[in-house]
Amino acid sequence: MTAVVAEHDDHHDHHDHGPEKGVLRWIFTTNHKDIGTLYLVFGLIMFFVGGAMALVIRSELFEPGLQFVDPNFFNSMTTMHALVMVFGAVMPAFVGLANWMIPMMIGAPDMALPRMNNMSFWMLVAGVLLLASTLFMEGGAPSGGWTFYPPLVFQNGKSFPFAIFSVHLLGISSIMGAINVIATIFNMRAPGMTLMKMPLFVWTWLITAFLLIAIMPVFAGAVTMLLTDKFFDTSFFDAAGGGDPVLYQHIFWFFGHPEVYVMILPTFGVASTIIPVFARKPLFGYASMVYATGAIAFLSFIVWAHHMFTVGMPVAGELYFMYATMLIAIPTGVKVFNWTATMWKGSMTFETPMLFSIAFVVLFTMGGFTGLMMSVAPVDFQYHDTYFIVAHFHYTLVPASIFILMAAGYFWLPKWTGNMYNEKIGRLHFWLSAVSVNILFFPQHFLGLAGMPRRIPDYAIQFADWNMVSSIGAFIYGFSQLLFVYIVIDTIRGGTGEKVSDEVWEDASKHSLEWTVPSPAPYHTFSTPPARIPTEHF
Amino acid sequence: MKKTKQLLACLVLMALGLGTAHADYTLNLMKGVTQLSNELYDLHMLILWICVFIGIAVFGTMFYSIYHHRKSKGHKAEQFHENTTVEIIWTIIPTLILVGMAIPATKAVIDLDKVQDSEMSIKVTGKQWYWEYEYLDSGVHFESHLDEASEKTHRVSTMDPHNVPNYLLNVDKPLVVPVGKKIRFLFTAADVIHSWWVPDLGWKKDANPGFVNEAWTYVDKPGTYRGQCTELCGRDHGFMPVVVIAMEQDQYDAWVKATLDKQNQKPDLSDQTRNTLMAKGESVYLKNCVACHQIDGNGISGWFPALRGSEKVTGNMDQLIGFIQAGTSKMPAFKKLPDDELAELITYIRNAPALGNNVGDEIQPNKITPKWDDDE
Amino acid sequence: MSEDIGQKNTKLVRKLALVAIAMFGFGYALVPLYDVLCDLTGLNGKVEGQAVQETAYQVDKSREVTVEFLTSLNESTPMLFRSEVKSMKVHPGEYYTVNFYAKNTTNMPMIAQAIPSITPGLAAEFFKKTQCFCFTEQTFAANEEKTMPVRFVVEPTLPERYKTVTLAYTFFDNTNISKK
Questions:
Q1: Which residue of A has its CA nearest to C40?
Q2: Which compartments is it annotated to reside in (chain A) (predicted)?
C-alpha cells in the first residue's frame, strides 16, 4: 500500500528525490508545500503593495485640503487597495496556508490535483499583474470602487475591460483552488480521519471552498454583464434599455457577502487551531464550531441586500434582510464564546501566535458589534457609506484576518523552516500592530458617526483631528509590518539557532497531524498514512 | 508578562470608554432635528449599550481567564471540551437579545417608510457633481453647487481650508424648507448613482438614474443642516454637499416668492465692464467647468481636454458659443446658461491668466448669437 | 487504489466544475428573477412596458388620489421635456389623459426612450396605462416638438394608505445605440 500511495500521480515521479534546483522548481512545481510557499510569499508582497496604496490614502487624508494626489487617483487608490488586499493578499495567503497545511493535517501526501494547483497559482499572478497594469493606462486604474457599480464603472477609462478580465482570471484561479481543496479533503484523507476528526482549519476551508465555487461564477457573470453592457449594447443595468443599475448591486452582493466570509471563515479555523495549543486544552465545542461555520456560510447567501438598505427597497425587503442579518450574530457569538471557553481554566502561555489570536478574538468581536449595529436597517440609514462602515469592515479584516495570518505565520514557521523565530521581535511586532491598528481604525468610528462619508479625498475641518490620529496609526501599523518580513527572512536563515522539535509547541501533536512529522517538514510527507489520528478535540 | 497584559486590558477599556463615554458631536451620532432622527438615535444608543455590556461580559471573562489560568502561575489545564447546558444558554440569550432589538427596529423601519400624507414634495436630482432641486408645488427650481470659497480652496494647494467657513459643507444655493410641515423628497439621478444625506434628518437615500426613490422629513427646529453625497459618484464625489435651511412658514413663503421672482426675471443683458465680466466669469467657470477642465485650465490627461491654449477656446468666438451650447458626447450642452453668464464665461476662458489664455477681447451679453429659443 | 483516487478525483472535479458553470448561469438567471421579484414587490417602482386594455372600473368618486408627474433628462439629453400639469387629483377607477411635451433642441434627428418609474413602488401595480410614449422609442426630427398624451387609471383596489402617487419619466438619448 505504501508504494501505491506514493505513486498516486504518475507525473509526480520526478519529484520523488526532493525538489529541483533553481527557478524552474518554482515555476513548474506541483508540490503542495512549494505552491503553498509561492502563495504565501505572493500574498505577503501584495499585502505591502495594497498597504502602500492605503498609505497614499491616509497621507492624503492626514490634513484637510488636497495635498498629494488628484481626486481621481485617490479613487483609484481606494479601488485598487480593496481589490489588491482582497484578491491579491488575504485570499491567496489563505490558499497558501490551505496548500501547506491541509494535506499535512489530514495525512495526505499532496493535494488531489497538483497540476491544477500550479495552474491556479500562475493564473492568480497573471490576474493580479493585469490588474496592476491598469495603473499605467490612459485614464488610470479603475476608480469606481471595488464594487464596480454601474453606471459609474462605465466612466472608467481604458482600464475597464482589463479590470474585468483580471477579475475573470482571479475568479477562475479561485474556483480551481477551491475544487482542489474539496477534492483533497473528500478523497485524500488518511484512513481513520473522519470528517468530524478533521482539524477545524480544514473544516472551515472546506466550507469556504464551497462558498467560492458558488459565488465566484456569479461575480464573473455580473462583470461579464458589465462588459457586454459597455461594448455590445446589452442593457442589463442600463435604465435606457429597460435594465436597472440596482440589479447589479443585488448580483454583486449575492457574491460580495459570501466573499467577505471567504476571508473570515479560514481565519476562524486558524484561531480555533492555535488557541487550544497555547491553552493546553482541547477546543471547546468542536461540533458546535463546525455547525456554526456552516450556519454562517448558509446565512451569508440570504443577507446580501443589507449592503443596500438605502437603495430604495420595500419595507418587507428591509425587514427581511434586517432579521436575516441579525441572525448571523448567533453563530458568530457561539464561536466567540467557544474560544473564550477554550481559554477558560486552561494553562495558557502567550507566545506571539497566541497573542495575535487573542487580539483577534477581542478586536474581531468589536467588528462584530458594529456589524450588529449596522444590521439594524433604520440606523444603517445613518451609518451606511460613512467611515463607520470603513471602521467596521477593517476591524473584521485587519485585526482579524491579517492578525490571524500573522499568527499562522509565527505558529507554523518553525514547522516549515525547522528554525525558531525570534520571540522578542515577534512580540514587539505584535504590540506595535495591536496598538497601532486601534489608533488607525478606532477613530474612524467617531468620524463615521460624526458624518464623514467614505471614499472622499478631502473633508470638512471638524473631521481633521481624528483623521490625523488615524493616519498616524496607519503609518505606525504599516511600517511595523516590516518587522514581520525581517522575522520571516531571519527564521528561514536560521532564526534563533535553536533547532525545534517535531512538535515545536508543547503537546501540539495531540491536536493535529502536522506536528508529528519532522521539522522542517520534509518535501514529501505522509507518503504512508499516519498510524494514529489525533483526537484531542473530542 | 504582567505589563503586557495590563497594557492590553487598558487599551480595550480605553477603546470601549472612548466609544461610549463622550456623547458629543465629534464622537457620536447626532440626535438630529426630527422626531425620526431622534428615534434612530435612541435605537443606536440602545444597541450600542447592549454591545458594550456583552463586550464587558465576554472580554471580562476572557481577561479573568488570561490573568488566572496561565501556565506561569502554575495553573493546570482542565480537559473539558463541551457543556451542552452552557452552549444552549449562550445560544438562547443572544437570540432573546436580538428579538428585543428587532422590535424597536421594526417600528423604526415602518416609520421611515411613512412617506404618505405629506404636505409638499421636493424633487432632488443628483448630478455629477451637484444637486438640483425642484419644488413641485411652487415650481421653484435651482441647482445647488459647492460654494465658491471651498471650490477654489480645494483646487489651489496654497489656500488653507481652515480659513473657509464650513469648508466643503457649504453651497451657493441651499435647499430651503419650512418647519412643521411633512415634506416628501423624490430622488433621482441624471448620470450615475448618488446618495443624499443630511445626518440631522436621520437618513440618506440613493438617487438612481431612471428611477425614483422617496423619503420624508418633518423638521421641528429652524436652522441650517449640512450633509454630503454618500455614494461614490466619480472624481468630485467629495465635493457635492447638501445644505438644508429650515425656516418658519412665513419666512419660507417670502423666500419662495423672492426666488420665483428672480427665476422669472429675464437675464440682465446690459453691457458690463471688462473687469466685471472677468470676475463674474470666474464664478460661472468655477460652478460649471472647473470639475473637468480644472482650475488651471489644463484638464485631465486622458479624461478631459485642456482649455489652456486650446484652438477651440481662443479661436472663432461664434463657434465657441455654439460649441458650449451644443455640447459633445462627453460634455453636456450648456444651453441652461443665460446669455449674461455665457458672455461672462467666454470672456473669462479666453482671457483668464489662471487658464493661461490671453486673447484680449470680450463679448457682451447682448452680443451672444446664436441664441437658444426657449419657448417654455 | 491510485486508480481509485484518480477516478474519484476526476468525477468530483467534473461535478464541481458543473456546479461552477451552473452558478455562472445562475448569475444570469438572477436577471429575470429580479424582474419577477420587482413585479411582485414593486421594488424600485419598475413599471410594465406595455399598454393594457382599457377596461371599465367602478369609479370611486368618494376617494381622491393625487398623482404627481415628474420629468427628467438623463445626462446631456438635448431636449425640453415637461408635463402639462405638475399634479392632478384623480378618482380611482376613472380614466384620465395628461399631455407631456418634448422637444428636440438639436438640429439633428434624435431617438429617445422614456423610462417610467412609479413611487411608491408598491403602488405601481395599481397604476395602469392604456397609452404612453414610453412604450416605444420616440423619434424626433431636428427641432421637432411633440405632444404626447398618457392615458391612465388608478385602480380602485389601490390600498387606502396611498394618497399620493408619483409618475416619473426620464428621457434617455438612444440615438447612438439605436442607429447601430
A1: A314
A2: Cell membrane; Membrane
